[in-house]
Design goal:
The protein contains 4 helices and 12 strands, in the order ααββββββααββββββ. By secondary structure, it is α+β, with helices and mostly antiparallel strands. The protein has a single domain, classed as outer membrane lipoprotein receptor (LolB), chain A, CATH 2.50.20.10.
Length: about 230
């Protein structure tokens, strides 16, 4: 594979990772809702949650819908974890096994069924900005314009919040579907500039379980080629 084609493929994989990361970057908050809150108030509660959460783990279902292929969906399943300080680990188990691991310096993408490994360091700033929301080190409203979203027929009893990036971004908006009692996000959708949709549903979440930073390290297996982005 030529260097230009390899770099294009790596950039495509990293972009998908970033889009998925944005979708989970606002996930759960613990509070009770007595009255209807504005989108701004809801986001404030989410922000507070991240500032008091040291780590997070959950199972996820990812559903991707492409505008050019209406009615056709691609689904993937796995687990995701993050830890304060900027650590992130995605492990996909179906339909194929693969890992996205970020150790605060390097993004590792491992596809054991190929097998191959991508190593990327030049996307560090983008990843740090995305992880800032997860770790409580960044303010959501500094980077996003927050608006109330329209309720859907299948989500009548919760909050819908739309986040619009204030600067150039690979996506157009993030849609959050939030439980009105617990303030947990039951559904998160990233919509890109071509109106393709990347949806994440999270289940069985655990917080503050004492995850070690070693859980987010990656050592390439012997014999597996490592491809780097130049």
């Amino acid at each position: 594979m030529s260097s230009s084609k390899l770099n294009k493929k790596i950039k495509g994989i990293i972009l998908l990772f970033l889009l998925s990361l944005m979708a989970i970057s606002i996930n759960t908050a613990s509070a009770s809702a007595q009255t209807r809150l504005s989108a701004s108030n809801v986001v404030d509660k989410v922000q507070n949650y991240y500032e008091t959460t040291s780590d997070y783990t959950a199972r996820f279902v990812q559903t991707t819908a492409h505008k050019m292929f209406p009615g056709k969906y691609q689904r993937a399943y796995g687990t995701v974890s993050f830890k304060k300080g900027g650590y992130m680990r995605w492990e996909y188990t179906r339909p194929s096994h693969k890992y996205f691991i970020y150790d605060t310096k390097t993004l590792w993408i491992y596809e054991p069924e190929v097998p191959q490994i991508f190593q990327g360091s030049d996307q560090t700033d983008k990843l740090k900005n995305a992880l800032a929301f997860l770790t409580g080190e960044g303010k959501i409203k500094d980077f996003y314009t927050v608006k109330d979203g329209p309720l859907r027929s299948d989500f009548k009893d919760g909050y819908v919040v739309y986040l619009f990036p204030k600067t150039n971004s690979p996506f157009k908006r993030v849609e959050l579907y939030i439980n009105k009692n617990s303030f947990s996000v039951e559904r998160s959708i990233v919509v890109d500039h071509d109106d393709n949709r990347n949806r994440l549903d999270f289940y069985g979440s655990k917080t503050n379980s004492g995850l070690s930073s070693s859980f987010f390290t990656f050592t390439p297996p012997k014999g597996v080629p490592v491809m780097t982005q130049q």
